[in-house]
Known about the structure:
It contains five helices and two strands, in the order ββααααα. The chain is mainly α.
Amino acid sequence: MSNLFIxxxxxxxxxxxxxxxxxxxxxLADADPTLVPGLQHALELLRNLPSSExxxxxxWARGVLAAAGVDPKHEVRAIKALRDAKPELxxxxxxxxxxxxxx
Length: 103
């Protein structure tokens, strides 16, 4: 895993998953036993996060399609749902993301 920079308008979100994992591992080393299950769960969630912008796009698309009740294999419906959710998506980008979501 590495840092992931996501540009959204004038804001850049920096996700440093490696740092978060390290900090939670350190917290686990001397954590109160009642906190251990929650910290272990948080560690598992962080380790399973999408690690690239492409993976994030695919996960976003799958979430949008699921919320819209659209089967990712129905390409035209999937593209429409993605563009409805994010109108600034170009048709070409929506097609590409829809195809990845259907895999």
